[in-house]
Design a protein that fits this description.
This protein has 614 residues and is an alpha+beta fold. Helices cover 36% and strands 27% of the residues. It has helices at residues 3-10, 31-37, 54-69, 119-140, 178-185, 193-200, 251-259, 274-287, 304-311, 313-330, 354-369, 395-411, 451-461, 465-480, 514-523, 538-541, 549-552, 588-613; strands spanning 14-20, 24-29, 74-81, 88-99, 109-117, 145-150, 155-164, 167-176, 208-212, 223-233, 239-248, 294-301, 336-341, 344-350, 381-388, 416-419, 484-491, 494-502, 533-537, 559-567, 570-579. A 6-stranded antiparallel β-sheet has the order 8-7-6-11-10-9. It has a 5-stranded antiparallel β-sheet with strand order 2-1-5-4-3. A 5-stranded mixed β-sheet has the order 13-14-12-15-16, with helices on both faces. A hairpin with a 5-residue loop joins strand 10 (223-233) and strand 11 (239-248). Helix 13 (451-461) packs parallel to helix 18 (588-613) and helix 14 (465-480) runs antiparallel to helix 18 (588-613). The longest helix has 26 residues, at 588-613. It is extended. The N and C termini lie far apart (88 Å).
């Protein structure tokens, strides 16, 4: 028996060769074919369709003869009864045209038939249909809405299943140019638009609540709905589709959530949410017994997408953090600042007039422009503002007015501040976040740069090395979740601090005793790697005098990693990566990562030193 015959005999799929002439006969078949139908070759005296009923036999033979006449391959499904068990099977037949054979005495054509038992698949499909029917019936009796948003096409579709005459009917509603018209149509409460934008940009990966105007509701009426959604990506890892459900939030739960909104924080910057900001602003206006001047500002970073395209989102997030810090540093503690979403921030200033607002905005714009983003990029900001002393002006009208001023500034391709001359009516339709997100679907298609690649690119292109190093330290600190990074260079027998970055709320420390640190490193050399890397935590510090503990682990530090800076193999300084939050478990990948980062920093601090001597 040759290899073909072995395969033909033992393959677990029904295979047969048929001759189509005056009758349709089985020429040969593998054992599995007969096992599938529970019979044997002698049970087919009248051809391949002997065991079919007369009507079915004629129907299938007519169909096959027509295909054979046109020399076509074909496929169909049918039911068959197992002869021995009398069970009904679902069979799929794929028939492949083979042609004619020269030794035939009559005009015949041949087909190869491959038979698959698809009974289980049919049963599963039936069960799935039944489950789907139950699900559709369940959601038709509930208030759940299914939605599908195609980001590139900007088409939003939501589906509501209803039962009519005992049948579940799907009633889709399609909205084209969804992002363009979403504010104008007021389908989503303007204050909640940012959640949808952030969902498309994958800034949200958990259920959240928005207010939606349903078909039966009048203008201005909304229902609080909980969104469960997922973002699908293409082969370039770019978001292209959002699929999810909307379900009404139970009234009691909705009330409880509203009372907690003040505690909501933006995950990236740590600023309060727009909902919390709204509450604080409305409380201020309500509690103002006299006409106190105030201002509401919307700050937008112009062409922020270029930053992400040039350096990736790691760097872009760091820029947003720096912008948030600049705003906090330049406003009073009683003022309000929140992140609206994307690259937009809301600022509410109390007890200020128009002149003070202009001065404040100019200061913010200059400070933001000083953020280091390489030699070829510059960060400009646009600020739309409204100044008033009328506590009765609605929050939505203030927001609309500032948004109109921002829109005027951006569309005229200007930067700086635009103060509105009069209060707008919020019924016009908010554009908040639309301006900043109008290029939502044009984000860079390239892969995100690795941190080491980004650091190298920043430092290599930098003309101002000092600014570039400070930016790198901020990037590393935020990305690695550190509290403080300190660069120290040798000065004789001591180490002196030359650069330092601290996370928000962490106390800087420039009084490190370099002599003691060097002494520690020399004593504990066995704890350091050949590359001059080591860990200092409360356990290792215990080996020293208590008087030195405050120096080795200063300002609340819980654990730190020291890495030597080398020049021609000799140590010239040290970088301390500090964690003040808890007992950090440094892993092998941390050693590799920080070693690379330290080598890059070492090389370019030497460059800065050399430039300074010129």
């Amino acid at each position: 028996m040759n290899e073909r015959e072995v395969l033909f005999q033992n393959i677990p799929v029904g295979i047969m060769k048929a001759r189509i002439g005056e009758t349709i006969d089985i020429v040969e078949a593998n054992p599995y074919y007969y096992e599938m139908f529970g019979t044997k070759p002698s049970d087919y005296p009248k051809g391949a369709f002997t065991r079919f009923g007369e009507t079915d036999r004629k129907m299938y033979e007519a169909y096959i003869r027509q295909r054979a006449q046109d020399h076509e391959s074909f496929s169909f499904e049918y039911k068959a009864v197992h002869k021995e068990t009398e069970k009904t099977l679902w069979i799929k037949l794929d028939a492949i045209y083979l042609g004619e054979e020269e030794n035939d005495s009559e005009s015949c054509v041949y087909y190869l038939g491959v038979y698959f038992d698809i009974t289980k698949q049919k049963q599963m499909a039936t069960e799935l249909d039944e489950t789907k029917s139950l699900y559709l019936r369940a959601i038709s009796s509930s208030d759940e809405i299914i939605f599908d948003y195609l980001i590139d096409e900007d088409v939003f579709t939501y589906y509501k299943h209803v039962e009519e005459n005992g049948k579940i009917i799907n009633k889709p509603r399609v909205f084209e140019k969804f992002l363009v018209n979403i504010g104008r149509d007021k389908l989503i409460y303007p204050d909640d638009l940012v959640y949808f934008y952030d969902l498309c940009r994958e800034h949200i990966d958990h259920p959240f609540d928005i207010r939606v105007r349903r078909e039966e509701q009048r203008a201005g009426e909304y229902t609080k709905m909980r969104v469960h959604a997922s973002v699908q990506k293409d082969e370039k890892d770019r978001p292209v589709r959002v699929i999810g459900t909307l379900r009404p939030v139970p009234p009691r739960e909705s009330m409880e959530k509203d009372t907690d909104s003040i505690d909501e924080k933006d995950e990236l910057t740590g600023l309060i949410s727009r909902k919390a900001a709204r509450k604080l602003i409305e409380e201020f206006k309500t509690n103002s017994s006299v006409a106190v001047p105030y201002a509401l500002l919307i700050l937008d970073i112009k062409d922020f997408r270029k930053v992400n395209d040039a350096y990736g989102h790691i760097f872009g997030d760091n820029v947003l953090l720096q912008v948030a810090d600049i705003i906090i540093e330049n406003i009073n503690k009683s003022d309000v600042v929140a992140r609206l979403g994307g690259d937009e921030f809301l600022i509410f200033l109390k007890n200020v007039g128009k002149r003070a607002v202009v001065s404040m905005c100019d200061k913010l714009c200059r400070a933001i422009r000083d953020i280091y983003v390489g030699e070829d990029l510059r960060i400009d900001s646009c600020i739309g503002a409204v100044v008033s002393q009328d506590p009765s002006v609605a929050y939505d009208d203030l927001l609309q007015t500032a948004d109109d001023a921002l829109f005027e500034l951006i569309t005229s391709d200007r930067v700086g501040v635009e103060i509105a001359k009069e209060i707008s009516n919020h019924n016009k339709g908010l554009r908040i976040s639309y301006i900043a997100d109008r290029n939502l679907r044009k984000e860079t298609a390239g892969k995100e740069k690795r941190l080491s690649e980004l650091i190298f690119e920043l430092l290599e292109k930098a003309k101002d090395i000092d600014r570039a190093i400070n930016t790198v330290l901020a990037l590393v600190g935020e990305k690695k979740g550190l509290s403080r990074i300190t660069i120290m260079h040798r000065d004789g027998e001591e180490l002196k601090v030359t650069y330092q970055w601290t996370a928000r709320g962490v106390v800087p420390n420039t009084s490190l005793d370099g002599h003691i640190i060097l002494d520690y490193q020399n004593r504990m050399r066995e704890n350091f790697t050949e590359d001059g890397m080591g860990i200092i935590d409360e356990g290792t510090v215990a080996k020293f005098d208590r008087s030195k503990k405050d120096i080795l682990l200063p300002a609340g530090c819980k654990s730190l990693m020291y890495c030597d800076m080398l020049e021609f193999g000799e140590p010239t300084g040290m970088v301390a990566y500090v964690d003040c939050t808890g007992k950090r478990e440094w892993k092998d990948k941390d050693f590799k990562s920080f070693r690379t980062i330290t080598r890059l920093i070492s090389a370019y601090t030497l460059k800065a030193k050399a430039i300074g001597k010129e």
